[in-house]
Amino acid sequence: MKHLKKIAVALMLFVATTSFVNAQSTVAHIDVTQLLAVMPEMKAAEAELKKLQETYNADIQASMTELRNKLTQYQNEAPSKSKEENDKRAIELQGFEKNIGEAQQAAQQEFQKKQGELFAPISEKAKAAIEKVAAAQGFDYVMDAQPQAGLIVAKGKDLLADVRKELGF
Predict the structure, then answer these.
(1) Which one of 9, 19, 97, 128 is at 20 to 30 Å from 144 when CA atoms are compared?
(2) What pTM was computed for the model?
(3) Please, how many CA atoms are within 13 Å of residue 54, restricted to the half-sphere of its CB?
(4) What is the pLDDT of residue 4?
(5) Following DSSP, what letter does each residue of 32-92 receive, concatenated?
């Protein structure tokens, strides 16, 4: 009877250990930021965004220059103008400053919107390639290898080279 109990316990431990080993998932990692940085689509999107940013900056700078010119002009003319006219000009300058601030906010919002429009399909393409490579190589999980992403140890398979090959570069 004691032998039977020992055999039963040993058999249960063997089954539990085997089940645990079979239940373990395979994990790989990839530096998504590095992948996105080498994608040709990302380089084109970044160039387009840079051009857009330069356009916004040029418009804002032109408005700022105009504001500075008016301010200088109004300051030089202030002694020869009436108090009412100087007050009116001060209000005009405040309104102009407010318009510039609103233009800066609108430009920032438009920039972020355009960034989202350009980056979303690129991210989706990268994600699809990562999923395809992971499935082909039998990985259940793929973690982002960026330090901020929460990965502490990256001893598993790095899929970057395989995903780049899948994407054709």
Answers:
(1) 19
(2) 0.67
(3) 6
(4) 47
(5) HHHHHHH-HHHHHHHHHHHHHHHHHHHHHHHHHHHHHHHHHHHHHHGGGS-HHHHHHHHHH
Is residue 139 within 8 A of residue 24, CB to CB? The reply is: no
| Helices (runs of H) and strands (runs of E) counted in the chain | 5, 3
What digits encode the pLDDT tens for the residues 59-118?
999 999 999 999 999 899 989 989 999 999 999 999 999 999 999 999 999 999 999 999
Q: Rounded to 5 degrees, what angle do the CA atoms 108, 112, 113 make? A: 115
Q: Where are the domains of the chain?
A: 2-167
**How far, CA to CA in Å, does 35 sit from each of 77, 143, 145?**
59, 13, 11
pLDDT digits (tens, 9 = 90+) for 135-167: 898 888 888 888 776 654 455 677 888 888 888
Q: How many CB atoms lie within 10 A of CB 134?
A: 21
Task: State the Cα–Cα distance between residues 50 and 157, nearest whole angstrom.
Answer: 35
- Please give the pLDDT value at position 63: 94
Rounded to the nearest 10°, the torsion over CA 143, 146, 147, 149 is -50
